[in-house]
Each structure stands twice: as C-alpha cells, then as structure tokens.
Specification:
about 575 residues; six-stranded parallel sheet; four-stranded antiparallel sheet; about 45% helix
C-alpha cells in the first residue's frame, strides 16, 4: 500500500466538510460581532468597511450591513477631498460588481449601487450601461438589472431611441426575451406618442410592430413573450374616468351618476359637483351599496326645491374633477324621470375605431394566425390571439366564429377554463349592449348564453327588463344595484345559492329565480329591502322541500306574492 494516495471514505469527507463549515461559521459570527460592536461605538472607519467586505462578499443580502456601509461612506466623504471620494466610490462599485457575481439578483446590492452612483462626484454612466448589458447577457430576465438600467438611463439622459435599438439587439438574439418586449411597450409611446390616446404609440408604429411580433411567434409559436406583446399592441390606453350617464328620478327624488371607471367621491370635496338650473346644489353622495368605496355609480337625494312641479323643466348638470368631464340632463314637467347617456358605439367603449390600413393589417394578421393554428391546432396563444383579433375587427360579425374558437381554446387549455368562461361572458355582454343600443331598446335578453359573470352593468342603468335565464351564474354582483330602472329580473335555470350582499333595486317588481340552488329562506333576506317587489317565483329550488318554507318566506316578505311549487 506504500506510495498510493489514500482516498477518503464517505464518513471522512462528511466530517471534513462539517469542520470546514464550522470554521467558516465561527469566522462569520466573529466578523459580524465585530461589525456591530464598531457600529455601536460609532467607529465609522475603513477598518469597519473592510469587515463588512468579508460578510457581504459571501452574503450580499445582509441589508443591515449595506446601511452601515452607507453610514461609513458618508463619514469618509465628509472628511476627504472630492478626489478621495471619487476613489472611494470607484472601489465601492468594484466591490459591488464582485457581490453581483455572487448573487446577480440581490435586492440590497442593486439598491446600494444606485445610492453610490448618486454620490460619486464624476459618475461613469457609459460603464454602468456596459455592466447592465453584461449581466443581461447572462440572464435576460433579471428584473433587478432592468430596473437599474432604467435608473441609469434616466440619470444619464440616454435617448429613448438608443434604448429601443438596445431592445432590437436583444430581441433579434432571442425572441423569448419578455423583458425586452415589455421595455419596448414603455419606449414606443415616448418616441411616437399618439395625441388621441395618451400612453399609446401612433398607428404607423403599431403596424410596424405587428409585423415584427408576427415574425417572433411564427418562429416559436409556443413562447408566450411575443404573444403577450401582441396583445398589448391590440389594446389601447386606459382612459381617464368620465361620466357615462346621469339619471334623475322625480319619484325617488334622487339623481344617479354612472362612471366609466370606479371613482371615489370624498365627503366635503369638490370632486363631484351638482348644479340644478345653474345653481350649485349641496348634496351628500353615496354608492348604491352604501359603503362609499370606489364605485362605478354614485347617488344623491334631491331637495324638494330642485323638483318643483310648477316649472316647465329642470336642468341638472354634473361636473367631475374640475370640469374634465361633465354631463347635463333635463327633467320635463309631467315626466317621472330624465337622463342623458353616452353612446357605446360613438364613444368606442369596447373597441377602437379602425382605419382602412389598420383593418387591412389586422385582417392579414387574422389569416396568418389561422394558418398557424392549422399547423399548431392546440397552441393556446394562437387561439386566444385569433379571438382578440376578431374582437378588434368586428365583434358582432365574428361572434359565432369567436364562440367556436372559445370551445377549441378551452379544450386546449382546460386549466384556465374558468378564466376563459369569464372572458367569453364579458364579450357576450358587450355584444348584447351593442345590439341593444342599435335597437334603442331598454330590454336586454342574455338568456341561454352560458354566462358565468355579469359585467359592464354601468352601461345599463336605464334598462327595465333583464333576462338572465339559462346561464351558469353562481352569484349576483353588488354592481347590479346600478340598474336603477330595472322592473323585471329573470334568473331561472342558473346556479344561484344566495342573494347575500345584493343591495336593493328601487324599481324591481318581478323577480323569477326558478330552478336555482337556494336552500334557505334566509338566503333571500336582501329582498326584504326591495320597496316595490310584488312577485317572486322560486319553483325548483331546494328550499321548496322545507316544510315551513312558505310560512318563513311570508314572514320575511309579507307584501310579496311568492310561488314555491
């Protein structure tokens, strides 16, 4: 056995590693203890800086030590010359680069680098951009590095055009670079702002981007990065909240304002102002559910003086956010109510008006996606994009085909079937609102459409009859209270279990909830606050099997004619 290298056994190796770990731990604890002792004694010197080097070099996520280093640097900065500060910061940046090689996604390290660059007398921003490029080459989705690059770009005032070329380089190298696609969505509106849609680029740029992104998803159809960017291209800027409708009721002595987005009306503020016949009217605003949280509708009670029957008419003007949005409605003598509302079609609420050029490009995109789907029949991103393109082109013309693609998409992506059902429901409600407006009707029939959610109710404050029979609704949203004129509600053949949380509907007279899943009379308790309810149909619900259901319901709703069997 002489002359041969002895190979350590597994037990010996494990013991050696244990001893090595214990040694490192003792050194780590000793250095940490020394650091905190120096901080306690106020010894902010280079020796303390060197001690933190030992710990942060192996564990760059020790946030307290970065704070201590900043204290030390500030002390040394105050004691030295600008040249010494420059040298100190240069050394700090070099040390930070070492820490980033240990952990490229260390929150504390990137934050400290931002701080140092804010204190260095003569920052070298070009070198920082090179550093970012090097780390993004290693990990193109390192969002810490992307955040730092945006910081550098802002401080160095790098032109947006240069950054766009940088994303070109990264995307050309790898179409799957989601961060680069996202960065483009931030840069393009800066370089080519659309004056009609703040936050969006011009149509010419969008059309060029559509061609670029099409090359990406044809190269790798299963990568989601390009598909997400394509969805952004088809979208539009989020508009500021506007007043959609003003409705005034003489019978209820109330006025309702519907908004395009949820808003908050702070008590005593000038957020929402009401003028009656050009005279300011002091009122208390509330949401239909009384919670006064951000809401799509706000109500107020009107004083008797604002509804004088002897006047030929009353004009009510509502002003939001200092006059950025306002609307006026007239209540004529002898009329019980009056309103003024925006047109869904004229205001392009659900889709953007398309130019001939954009329609042509989107039509070509649709055909290309259909060709790709024929080659990749179960590609969920392709199927979803086909649906969105059809919505952008003409939601009514493509409705039947859209529903067919939804069925195919659910089969290809069963894990997201609930999301897809809700998206399908939203599109169907939008189409029904469009049809209702074209017919100028106040009756909406959404029966038998397989709806799982109700949305866009802020667009329907004037309807009197809503048919939701034969859907898959499990609950009624509190936003249903925005239907201030609703008289008849049909819900038979759904999956409703309770009406808990439903605010009162002031005009509702007939409510049909046959063949649902209501089990107890207490599930219908909210109906007791419906002032005009007179007919309630409950056949086919489990509560019908209860021996005393009829008597409990009669006690709960004494003025309502109830049918259980």
């Amino acid at each position: 056995m002489h002359g041969r290298l002895k190979v350590k056994t597994t037990e010996e190796q494990a013991e050696a590693k244990r001893l090595e770990r214990e040694k490192k731990l003792r050194q780590y604890v000793a250095a940490t203890t020394a650091i905190f002792e120096k901080r306690k004694m106020g010894q902010l010197d280079k020796e303390a800086l060197e001690l933190t080097n030992q710990i942060l070099g192996v564990n760059p996520d020790f946030a307290t030590l970065w704070n201590f280093r900043r204290e030390i640097i500030l002390r040394l900065e105050g004691e030295g010359s600008p040249e010494e500060t420059q040298s100190l910061c240069r050394g700090e940046l070099s040390f930070l680069e070492t820490c980033l090689r240990v952990n490229p996604k260390s929150y504390g390290t990137w934050h400290h680098r931002c701080w140092v660059m804010g204190h260095v007398p003569h920052p070298d921003w070009a070198r920082e951009l090179e550093l970012c490029a090097k780390f993004l080459e290693s990990d193109e989705r390192n969002f810490h590095c992307w955040d730092y690059r945006r910081f550098v770009v802002q401080r160095a005032q790098v032109p947006a055009a240069d950054e766009l070329r940088f994303t070109d380089h990264l995307i050309t190298r790898n179409f799957s670079n989601y961060s680069s696609w996202h960065y483009r969505s931030r840069l393009l509106p800066q370089l080519h702002p659309d004056p009609r849609q703040p936050g969006r680029p011009t149509e010419a740029v969008l059309l060029k981007e559509l061609e670029l992104v099409q090359n990406a998803f044809f190269t790798d159809p299963n990568d989601q990065s390009a598909w997400f960017y394509h969805r952004w291209l088809l979208g539009r800027a989020e508009p500021e909240p506007t007043i959609l409708c003003v409705y005034v009721s003489r019978e209820d002595s109330s006025l309702a304002v519907a908004f395009s987005q949820p808003v908050v009306v702070t008590p005593g503020s000038c957020d929402l102002l009401l003028f009656a016949d050009e005279a300011p009217l002091a009122v208390n605003w509330r949401t239909p559910d009384g919670r006064n949280r951000p809401g799509l509708m706000w109500l107020c009670d009107l004083p008797a003086s604002a509804l004088n029957d002897h006047w030929p008419q009353h004009t009510f003007r509502v002003q939001w956010a200092g006059g950025e949005s306002q609307k006026e409605c007239v209540l004529f003598k002898g009329r019980s109510d009056g309103w003024c509302r925006d047109s869904v079609t004229e205001e392009q609420v659900f889709r953007c008006e398309l130019s001939v050029e954009k329609s042509t490009v989107l039509q070509s995109e649709l055909e290309s996606c259909k060709e790709l789907q024929a080659l990749e029949p179960e590609n969920k991103w392709c199927l979803l994009t086909i649906i969105l393109l059809m919505r952008a082109l003409d939601p009514l013309v493509y409705e039947r085909e859209t529903l067919s693609y939804f069925d195919t998409l659910k089969a290809a992506d069963p894990m997201r079937s609930a999301y897809l059902d809700d998206l399908r429901s939203r599109f169907l409600v939008e189409n029904s609102i469009l049809r209702m407006e074209y017919a100028e009707a106040r009756v909406v029939d959404l029966s038998g459409r397989g709806l799982t959610v109700l949305c866009h109710l802020e667009q329907l404050p004037l309807i009197t009859h809503l048919n939701l029979a034969g859907n898959r609704l499990r609950r009624l949203p509190p936003t249903l209270a925005m239907l201030r004129c609703l008289e008849v509600l049909e819900l038979e053949g759904n999956q409703i279990e309770t009406l808990e949380g439903l605010p009162p509907l002031p005009r509702l007279e007939e409510f049909s909830a046959r063949s649902n899943r209501i089990q107890r009379p207490s599930d219908l308790r909210p109906l007791a606050s419906f002032p005009r309810l007179r007919l309630l149909a409950l056949q086919g619900n489990p509560l019908g099997a209860l021996p005393d259901a009829q008597s409990q319901l009669a006690a709960l709703l004494p003025r309502v004619e109830i049918t259980l069997a």
